[in-house]
Amino acid sequence: MVEKIEALKKEVNDYKADSAAQVEEFRLKYLSKKGILSSLMEEFRTVPSEQKRELGQKLNELKNYVTERYNFLKDNATSKNTLDISSIDLTRSATNFPIGSRHPISIVKNDIIRIFSDMGFTVAEGPEIEDDWHVFSSLNFPPDHPARDMQDTFFISRNPIDVLLRTHTSSVQTRTMEKNQPPIRIVCPGRVYRNEAISARAHCFFHQIEGLYIDKNVSFADLRQVLLNFAQQMFGSETKIRLRPSYFPFTEPSAEMDISCDICGGKGCPFCKETGWVEILGCGMVDPNVLKACGIDPEIYSGYAFGLGIERITNLKYKVKDLRMFSENDVRFLEEFESAR
Ligand code: DAH
């Protein structure tokens, strides 16, 4: 039996296995239940007890040796397979992985900023958590104005001063005028908050862009021309505008601007409620009280302001019917804008 063990050791040592199938053959031949090692174990039972000690040791050594050899052959065969360089095409270009698309609100915001920066406006920003002065008092809101009500505004604290989430980006007007003397020509993009029930047509947060121009001799005609240029660049050179008298505490006179409906070309359709016009923004000449509150002399300077909702412009451009789509981040919706920019 000793010779048998020695011969087996040599045989195992010389065994070559290049593939997984040959390694499996090795296992079956030596290590399986019906393999050579098992039958040697059977034979071992019958040897006289005085030889058992020595033979048992040798048999154990053999078993360890065969198992080691098996592991070695197995590793060798698998690493050979994965390192088979001939099957790798090193000249192939890497797989592209999809990159995200820009959010429609960002696409439209950037378009609006680009149009106004071509006309000399720079971008100014302000905080979303504001105080009463910047959102209401400095902008000539009377103390009992409904916008100051809890029903419309999210208050963070009311003592000692009112701290709140801004309800419009007009607060950035005040912040800019407090720190700078005219000429001032800015657009202020940002998120605003209102205490509204969420539905297809209203949301508790949305986005606005405020515009402000203060200088000597600024007139309503300047405002009209800038807004006409904006409307035609945004919605096409055929677009017409009209200004309707309106009221805002911070402008006098105030107006709302409509553009001709681009679906029916102004003839009247369900989208424009048969009027041929759709409203897009509020505007006006900055009230002298606002200039005074911000440390600018209304005897020397005048200016105009306007404010528009980015969701509104996006709806008009891309016909998104439900405002909630903008904040749900459904990838199927967002991917529709991939080609937009
Ligand atoms: N702040 C107004 C709003 O949120 C929008 C607005 C209207 C801004 C007229 C202006 C303006 O600057 O002149 O509804």
Walkthrough of the structure:
The protein is elongated, with a radius of gyration of 40 Å. The mean pLDDT is 92. The chain has 341 residues and is α+β, with helices and mostly antiparallel strands. The longest helix is centred in the N-terminal third of the chain and has 34 residues, at 49-82. A seven-stranded mixed β-sheet has the order 1-5-6-10-9-8-7, sandwiched between helices. The chain has a three-stranded antiparallel β-sheet with strand order 2-4-3. The termini are far apart. It contains twelve helices and ten strands. It has helices at residues 2-14, 20-31, 36-46, 49-82, 104-118, 132-135, 171-179, 220-235, 288-293, 310-318, 325-328, 331-334, and strands at residues 122-123, 129-131, 155-157, 163-165, 184-193, 205-215, 241-248, 251-260, 277-286, 302-309. Helix content is 40%, strand content 20%. It binds 3,4-dihydroxyphenylalanine.
Keywords, separated by commas or semicolons:
341 residues; alpha+beta; seven-stranded mixed beta sheet; three-stranded antiparallel beta sheet
